[in-house]
Amino acid sequence: MRLALAADHAAYDLKQQLAEWLRTVGHEVLDLGTHGESRVDYPDFGYRLAAAIAAGEAERGIALCGSGIGISIAVNRDPECRCALVSEPLSAALAREHNDANVLALGARLIGVDLAKACVTAFLSTGFAGDRHTARVAKLGAPAFAGEAA
User: Fold this and answer.
1) At the N or C end, where does the chain have fewer CB atoms within 10 A?
2) Of 65, 81, 83, 119, catalytic
């Protein structure tokens, strides 16, 4: 699978570790930065990741910042992206199964590399359940539906 990764300076080390691990397990990694520990702004990298997903440059994405919160907000500004901030594998699996999330967000200051790998594994190995979730997921990318009752 082709995966896009993006991080700010707080998550640079975790991004590097995940990118190396993902390559060793057979994935293609599109590294969208940052490429060092110098201070950068997480929205820039969240927007870059969202654009890559929306353009079809990667099947799924992994967004990282110190808490995972800011970068996930940035990614979710693009209606083609469904970014889920998680801190354990069950939420990562449910984000795929129920919400068809195409981007996973992780907080580098909140979880270690082993837990991050477990979350990524769950995210990549879980499929979308479809069925009753399909119409709900469609509403996530089409805010015009927000005021309508089912």
Assistant:
1) C
2) 65
Q: State how far the Cα of 143 lies from the Cα of 114, in Å rounded to an integer.
A: 36
The pTM of the whole model exceeds 0.90: yes
Residue 50 and residue 43 in contact, taking contact as beta carbons nearer than 8 Å = no
27: annotated binding-site residue?
no
Is 66 marked as binding a ligand?
yes
Backbone angles phi, psi at 106, to 5 degrees: -135, 145
pLDDT (average), residues 98-118: 97
pLDDT tens digits along 37-69: 999 999 999 999 999 999 999 999 999 999 999
Q: Which fold has domain 2-142?
A: Ribose 5-phosphate Isomerase B; Chain: A, (3.40.1400)
Catalytic residue among 83, 98, 119, 133: 98
46 appears as a binding residue in the annotation: no
To the question of whether residue 132 is assigned a binding role by annotation, the answer is yes
Active site residue 98: yes
